[in-house]
Amino acid sequence: MKVSGSWKLLILLVILCCQLFPVSEASSVVITNENLGNILKSNDLVLLSFYADWCYFSKLLEPIFEEAAAKVREKFSEDGRVILGRVNCAAEKEIAQAFNIVKYPTLKVAKSGVIYNNEYRGQRSVKGFVEFVERELTDPIKEFHNISELNNELEDGLVIGCFASRDDEEYLRYRKAARVLRDHCKFMVGFGEVSKDLHHPGKNLLIFRADTSTINHTEYYSEYSGNMPGFTELLHWMSEHCMPLVREITFENAEEITEEGLPLLLAFYDKNDLGPVQEFKAVVQSQLVNETRINILTADGALFAHPLAHMGKSRADLPLIAIDSFQHMYVFPKFADIHKPGALKKFIDDLFSGQLHVDYHMIIDLEEEQNTMSDAEDVTQPVVHESKFKELLPSKHRYTLLNPTRDEL
Length: 409
What we know:
alpha/beta; 5-stranded mixed sheet; 12 helices; 16 strands; 17% strand; globular
């Protein structure tokens, strides 16, 4: 077939455009109901971006996430290491529902096929994503070469593994579980002769040793006696010991904690006097170990001076306990009363029964009544406190929120 001169020119232009502006394959993976399961179980790390095409913040994130995916793929090219995937929530409603997506974009993290409530909340930049992946793919376990080295690790809960060799299947499962829980515990391992004094010959061993500066953990020392070849059972044991009953709230983790949707029981303390922190943790351990309705937290009074000031309190009033329901803040009458059997639990029960809220409205009614009285009358007005920690919830300036409302307590 004869090609005219104009068609020849058009073909040359197309070839030239393709050379100057090559069409690159997307570096992120499109996640569907069909490929999700296999991707999760076959990769050490999966970072999922849940988005909607109509969402302004999703559109801002898309090119950044794609560039980060390209750099990550270039740096970690071997199969099974890391995947950055994108989930179109309009097309994949079942996945969005399964992951409880309540805002766009949401960045979920899966480690070794396991998804807790892990969410990426760092900087939404190429550098931020790449550095996050690099950190997550480092080995979470530190090897010790002498038993005396274990005495230097005192600040955090510590899991100690003793194995025959690095090729041991049970060690590989330990390493997999440690990757999931790296943010909650420290992990160490000894091989062969190095750890022979800690366990019986021919038998591997896992030990949990609690933080020596706190009695927050269920036990100071615990030996794993389960079926080590079973990853699920091993992970459950490590999670029970590594996840503290009482967490420290900071500005770095506040969004994650508040988004869990549970009211906050807060023990404000002076960082120069940590005794009350230990008292509070001991009471929680003895009285509230099965409490799941509320997040139990400690808070540095200097860091969270604004909520204290909002309640009319200062450093001189510490330690102080309060509940923030995301509607109101309720102050526990007297810190020393936490040692009274059942006092702290009743404070929590009164929140969920509505008694604290009833008392709150009684205060408002009393204020209105007092406003009608003569100025000459000497009446002390109680202080009413609105929630301040709700300001740390995911922001409409960063996300498109799907369900921002909460029940009032």
